[in-house]
Every structure is written in structure tokens, then in C-alpha cells.
TrEMBL record:
Organism: Dokdonia sinensis
Statement: the UniProt record of this protein carries the keyword Flavoprotein: no
Keyword entries, A-Z: Membrane, Transmembrane, Transmembrane helix
InterPro entries the record matches: DUF4345 (IPR025597)
Protein's recorded name: DUF4345 domain-containing protein
Keyword Transmembrane (UniProt): yes
Ranges annotated as spanning the membrane: 12-36, 48-65, 77-97, 103-122
Length: 127
């Protein structure tokens, strides 16, 4: 593998996760029916999607912080690997139990790529 920019995995992950945060939480009753095909009218369901938005914004923000503050890069990279790993494993379990989702199958592959980029960069850039 050719030399990749040190912050590529963090920058890509932050951009995608922050964008998805707003997709899930900005206005779930309007946006999510178009994406998932179900109505979000229940207050508790709106709360769950907005909580997911908060989690995604927090993690995405930390990855940006890790880019801007080199002394946090390693921790941000480890957190990124764990976050993407958790998503990918959850999607893999869903694929095994529920079947292949074309919509989220691509996400699972992208998450696996981010895991490998993060691990590659951790090994390459030992501080």
C-alpha cells in the first residue's frame, strides 16, 4: 500500500459521520421516511435518533480534534477504529440474522476500510 496521508481515515470518518448525524437527527420525522421507509412520529423514537446524532457529532468532533491536535491523534485513531468496528460488527450480525442490505452493505464495507486504514496508520505513524 502506498503511503497514505496520516489523517485520511480521521478526516473521511469525521465528514461522513457528521453528515450522517444530521441525516439521523436534524428532522427525523421528515428525512428518515425518505431514507428508511418508515414514519418517525413517536416522541421516544425522535429522541433516540437525536441521541444518535449527538453521539455521532461527539465522535466526529473528536476525530477533527485529533487532526488539529497531534498529541490526540493516536487516541482519536483508536476511538475511530473501535467506533467503525462496532458499526461493522453490528451490521455483520444483522446481515447474518436478517440478510444482506444493499443500503447498509456499502456502509459495512466502508467501515471495514476505515478500520484497516486506521490500523495501517497506527502501525505506520508510531509516535
Amino acid at each position: 500500500m502506498s503511503r497514505l496521508p496520516k489523517n485520511l481515515h480521521l478526516a473521511l470518518s469525521a465528514f461522513i459521520v457528521i453528515c450522517m448525524a444530521f441525516v439521523y437527527g436534524a428532522h427525523p420525522s421528515v428525512i428518515l421516511p425518505y431514507i428508511f421507509g418508515f414514519e418517525v412520529q413517536n416522541l421516544e423514537l425522535k429522541n433516540i435518533f437525536r441521541a444518535v446524532m449527538g453521539i455521532y457529532l461527539a465522535f466526529g468532533g473528536y476525530w477533527v480534534y485529533g487532526i488539529l491536535k497531534p498529541n490526540h491523534w493516536r487516541s482519536a485513531t483508536i476511538v475511530n477504529i473501535l467506533f467503525m468496528g462496532g458499526l461493522a460488527v453490528g451490521r455483520l450480525i444483522s446481515t447474518i440474522l436478517d440478510g444482506w442490505s444493499p443500503q447498509y452493505g456499502v456502509g459495512m464495507i466502508a467501515e471495514a476500510v476505515m478500520i484497516f486504514l486506521g490500523i495501517y496508520n497506527l502501525k505506520r505513524y508510531k509516535d
